[in-house]
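<goal> How does this chain fold?
<body> The protein record starts here
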Amino acid sequence: MASHKTVTTHRASKKTVTATRTAVTLATATVGSIALVPNLAQATPNQSLTDVQNKVKDLQNQAEVATEAYNQANTQLVDLQHKVDQIQSRITLEQQALGQAQSSLGTLAAAQYKSGGVDSTLQLMLNTSPDAFLQQATALNEVTSQSASSLKNAEQIERQLQQDKDSAAKDLAELQKTRDYMAAQQAEIKAKQKAAQDLLNKLTPTQRVQYNHLQSNGFKAPSNLPPATNPRAAAAVAFAKAQLGKPYVYGAAGPNAFDCSGLTMAAWAQAGVSMSHSSSDQYYDFPHVTESQLQPGDLVIYYATLHHVGIYVGNGVVIHAPHTGAVVEYTSLHSMPVAGYVRP
C-alpha cells in the first residue's frame, strides 16, 4: 500500500491538472451528445442482433461518459457549497464587527459633543462611509488618535466585507452554473438510456431472448481467487464481493445500488480510504502500478476518457458496476480497453 505521504504527493500533483481534466470531461460529454443521431435509435427489421447489441452498447457507453461528468460536477458542487457557506458565515461576523465599529464612532462623537461640540471632520466621518472619509480627509491630525484608530478599523472591516460579498456572489453564480450543468448531464443520461430501451423494444420476443443471451457476459470467476495480502485491500475486496447482483444506478454509491466509481469509492471507504465519486479522479488521485504489479484491491480504469472503473480481485478478474440495466458483476480484466491501474 502507498504511504499517506505518497498519496498526498499525488493529490497535490492532481491540482495542477484539474482544470485540464475537467475541460476534457466536458468536451467528451459534448461529443457524447453529438454522437446520438436519430437513426441510431431505430432498429430495422434487417439489422442483426449483433448490430443492435453494438448500438445499445455504444449508447450505454455514452451514458456512462455523461455519468462521469455528472459525478465530477457533483464533487465540484459540494466543494463550492462548502466554500459559499464559509464565506457567508464570515460575512455575518464582519457585519457584526462593522456595526460595533460604527457604534464606537458614534460614542466618540457623543463624547466630543459633551465637551463642546462635534468638529467638522468627525461630522464628515459619520455622514459618509469610512472609505469615502479617508479619501476626502486632508488631515487625520484633526481627529483624535482614538477616532482615527476606530475609523481605520471600520474602514478595514468594510473593505473585507465588500471583498467577501463579491467573492460570495461569484461563487454563488458558479454554484448555479454547476447545478445547471448537472441537470444537463442528467437529461443526457436519460436520453441515452431511453434511446437504448427504444432499440430493445423494437425486437420481437424471440429476438429479445436471443439478445439477452448475447448480453450475458457468461463470465464466471474462478473459485480460487487469491486473498488480498493487505488488510485494507481485503476489506475493500470483501465489500465489493458482497455487492454482487445489486443494480447499476448512475450517481449511486450504495447501499442498494451503485455506479462504477460509486462501487469502488464505497468499497475503499470500508478500509478507511476516502476517494472522489469519479473514475477519472480516482485515476489521478492514487499511485499508478503496472499490470504485472496488480494486487487484489487495486483499481482498474477503463477507456481513454477514464469514465469506467472496477476493482481487481485477482487472477485476471475484476468486479464492476457496468451500466443501466445490469448488476454488479465479475468480468475479465481485459473485457474493456484498459487505461491504467492505481493502488489506493
